[in-house]
Give the backbone structure.
Amino acid sequence: MTRPLRCALSLPLLALLTLAACGPAGDGALPPVEVTVATPLAQDVTDWDEYTGRIAATDTVEIRARVSGYVQAANFQDGALVKKGDLLFVIDPRPYQAVLDEAKAGVARADARLELARSNLERARTLAKSKLIPEDQLDTRVQELRSAEAELLAARAATQAATLDLDFCSVRAPIDGRVSRRYVTEGNLVTGGTKDATLLTTVVSVDPIHVYFTADEQAYLRYQRLAAEGIRPSSREVANPVRIQLADEQGFPHLGRMDFVDNRVDEATGTIQGRAIIDNPDGRLTPGLFARVQLRGEGPYPALLVPDAAIGTDQAQRVVFVVDEQSQVRAKPVTPGRTLGTLRVIRDGLAPTDHVIINGMAKVRPGMPVTAVEGRIEPPASP
């Protein structure tokens, strides 16, 4: 009973296979794949080269004592903004006031001696004309006058030195900027006037501010070549624009300009240092912060752009897929440039009239017929 049943079940399947074999050969063909195509976006492009940098103050001053003594007062709030000339510290001025008073008294004594020496010399000259005193006594009076004049000059110099020391008791801000904390508080003894003078605080300038960054040898040589060809001026000669972005920012909202390129390439790192200056009216750019820096490279120049996702790889080549007049896929080798948002500049290999596949490229291969639907490449967002 088992064998006849197996044969009975196989007859319907055999009939279906026979009908399928006798059907038309083209009934199972698939329709062409549908893809979205667009012509490359043509627009002027400016290349911005990106680097990492650190923000630094244009001026940094260590406030040190210039005279020794006890700190009498600290007249600022830690971390406050100060103006040039603002009083920061007061060192006890009383000892220096006493020295100045003594120096002024010395000037008065020297001035009195000078007047006496002048009078003695006039009398000696009168007597010498009458031959009442010898010539050597007249010479003595002349020397006494010169000595008195020298003593007066020395006394005046001592007075100037004492005045300076007294002025140095009032420690003032030498620049506009932000002051640090008090490193020395009231009542402490400080040492001044030497290389080991006591550090009282520091002041850093706020506006404008610098950002330092380094570029490698290849970038430096490219800038040199562009300058020689007249395409882009050197940042040593022209204040090329830069854009700055802090760690928590989107885009590059801070605009500045180059103001320094070092005179040599560092042999240890193979890099050269550059510096830009940025206006900082709100003080947000703080010395020491990390920053992304964009320096204008080549441009503006006319360019063709396609979506970065539309660029594929064929062995060592970069290619884009285009649809020709026969609605067939063709691979075109291209030379890509830099990205602008989701788009990429095509430096070579693409024509403005090419219909580039921008959607569906994963389903096609060269030589395949496709159904092309017209699309559009949207311009990149402004940074």
